[in-house]
Amino acid sequence: MNQPIRITRIVMREIQLQLREPFQISSGSVSHRRILLLELTEAGGATVWSECVAGELPHYSPETVDTAWLALKEWIAPRILGHPLHAPAAVLPLLEQDFRGHRMAKAAVEMGAWGLAATRAGTSLARVLGGTRDRIPIGISLGIQASPATLVTKAKAALAQGYHKIKLKIKPGADVEFVGAVRDALGPDAPLMADANNAYTLDQADLLARLDAFGLLMIEQPLAWDDLVRHAELQKKLKTPICLDESITSVERARDMITLRSGRIVNIKPGRVGGLAESRAIHDVCAAHRIPVWCGGMLESGVGRAYNVALATLPNFTIPGDLSPSARYWDRDIVLPEWTMDHGGMMRVPMERPGIGVEVDVGRVETLTVRKQVLE
Ligand code: OSB
Ligand code: MG
User: Fold this and answer.
1) Which ligand is nearest to the CA of 221?
2) What pLDDT is recorded for position 165?
3) What is the mean pLDDT of residues 201-208?
4) Which residue among 1, 51, 198, 203 has its CA within the 20 to 30 Å range from the CA of 359?
């Protein structure tokens, strides 16, 4: 890229989008997503949409829609607006200088810069990132259900739809019995995993070790969100590989995980780690240590999904991601075309479409908007 990118305008919007069914994880439940969207314009006139993955409450990370809104308006936009960016990879270092945390808010702008670079180059975001595949295998994340029987019904349906990985959310009281019921119903070859979202402590290692009997692909983030030391202790006691999600907030934390042996797999969410450059750095470090990675999700709209899908085309994304089709989440998405999955559980990547590969249904976004602010 020769000409630097100069972002001259950022439109922040919050929309409300109702999930088709409430999604419950150990740390909280959500039925309406409050979603922060950005529309970025650069000096040459190109525009792109991006999404901040923060949720309504600080139960997954310390950030929320409201803290991200504040951070974007007060600290991020003033640093970015009008500043020549020689590459999208320059965005996070600029935002990290004497500015702690708020990686979800930072990532929204960083990812938008990648989207602008791709749009301007007339190339797909996946290609700009170095993606190598035009079809990716898809997984599903199933929320905590009222009973093992309900979970079995959902998991059976997911398997029949072709999903390549079925993730079961667990918490104390909804773990061994629930996962066991699904394993029995789906058979020994079904690709199952569990995600605890920090619901356990090291004292419960024996309970967690009972999950070893079910041949899970991995157990995701069983212990505290910011803890690498106890995950290393726990990994010694489990046959099942630990995958870290919440704990990996940067490439440095991924290196720490590898050094400490706190886990054997990483769930990369670009929104959690400060964007796509950091995601790629984590991907590369993990590849060098033969640690497989996969792309997680945060119940994104079709805008955020575009960035996740592009990232998941990189070669070390060898495990299917939590990148379900639009219809799994919403009656109607805010992008055209919507994200879809074929009967073989694969999603097509818009490799030949410039930019993020989908159009935003701006009229629909207007209708869903609950607040809007223009920064110039
Ligand atoms: O832990 O991966 C998680 C959703 C919200 C917060 C945390 C998580 C999740 C998911 C959803 O598992 C995955 C998806 O977007 O389909
Ligand atoms: Mg998770």
Assistant:
1) 2
2) 98
3) 98
4) 1
Instruction: Judge whether 269 counts as a catalytic residue.
Output: yes
User: Is residue 320 within 8 Å of 334, Cβ to Cβ?
Assistant: no
pTM over 0.85: yes
Which residue, 26, 33, 58, 242, is CA-closest to 145?
26
Mean pLDDT to the nearest integer, 91-96: 98
Among the listed residues 244, 376, 269, the one whose alpha carbon sits nearest the alpha carbon of residue 234: 244
Specify the amino acid at residue 69: W
The identity of residue 211, as a single letter, is L
Q: Which residue of 169, 295, 322 sits with most ligand 1 atoms within 8 Å of its CB, as the best mutation to test the pocket?
A: 322
Which residues contact residue 290 at a Cβ distance below 8 angstroms, ignoring those fewer than 6 apart? Answer: none
Interatomic CA distance for residues 238 and 233, integer angstroms: 9
Look up residue 296 and give its two tokens: 């997680």
- Check residue 28 and give its pLDDT: 86
Secondary structure E strands in the chain: 5-25, 28-42, 47-52, 84-85, 135-137, 139-142, 165-169, 192-195, 219-220, 242-244, 265-268, 293-295, 335-336, 346-348, 359-360, 369-375
Mention every residue, 6+ apart, whose C-beta is less than 8 A from residue 182. Answer: 148, 151, 152, 155, 166, 168, 190, 192
| Tokens describing residue 229 | 């030391």
